[in-house]
Amino acid sequence: SYVEDVSGYIKQGAFNKLESEDYESSLVYIVALINLGYEDEKVLFALGNVLENIDISGLNEEEKLEHAMGIMKIYEDSLSLNPEFSLAHYKLGYIYKEFGQFLKSKLTFEKALNYDSNDFRRQEIREVIESIEDDVLLETAITLMEKGKYNDALEELLKIRLDRTDDIVYY
Questions:
Q1: Which of 2, 24, 78, 140 is 20 to 30 A from 67 (CA-CA)?
Q2: Residue 79 and residue 52: Cα distance in Å, rounded?
Q3: Please, are residues 30 and 53 in contact by the beta-carbon 8 Å criterion?
């Protein structure tokens, strides 16, 4: 049978394979779409998801870092096509958190909150933001110290929970 909407057919195939967790097959469909010049925020988001789920255990640490940076760029590219795409903000929030960019993570999660209508995910995001708040304050304080704003940095440090057990004493 003849398919008029080839891109739509390939996109549906990619999403079906992704949903069934057949990541390698989904990747083939997504690359085909991109090679056909069909890129939208959902296709790029699906590409990021596929790459997050592909086995990279055979890569060395530098290659794993490059892989993670590539995924981050894909989600950022997705947002360049649609700045209100909440799922890309959501994924990026976690990636920034894993890279220790807590302020950027918090800001990205807050954008996800603004655009996402899923109550379950919104609650999860609120909990993550709360869990990184001390890290955000510490990162902010360090930035302020680097700028020579020691009083402002001290104000941020004093907001950190006292039961924190990591290197906060150093600062």
A1: 140
A2: 17
A3: no
Q: What is the mean pLDDT of each run of 10 residues along the chain (171 residues)?
A: 77 93 94 90 95 92 94 96 97 95 97 96 96 94 94 90 60 49
| Selection from 36, 69, 120, 116 nearest residue 14 by Cα | 36
Tokens found for residue 88 = 């890309």
* Single-letter amino acid, residue 65: L
Helix H segments across the chain?
A: 6-19, 23-35, 41-53, 61-81, 86-98, 102-115, 119-131, 133-146, 150-158
* Phi, psi (deg, nearest 5) at residue 56: -120, 20
Q: Are the C-beta atoms of residues 116 and 86 closer than 8 Å to each other? A: yes
Would you state the pLDDT for residue 1?
53
Return the exposure string of 129-166: e unless at least 16 CB atoms fall within 10 Å of the residue's CB, then b: beebebbbbbbbbeebbeeeeeeebeebbeebeeeeee
Number of Cβ within 10 Å of residue 93's Cβ equals 26
The set of residues, in sequence order, having a beta carbon less than 8 Å from that of 68 and lying 6+ positions away, is 95, 98, 99
Q: What is the DSSP string of 31-54?
A: HHHHHTT---HHHHHHHHHHHHHS
User: Alpha-carbon distance 143 to 147, whole Å?
Assistant: 6
d(CA 49, CA 43): 10
Greatest Cα-to-Cα distance within the chain, rounded to the nearest angstrom: 72
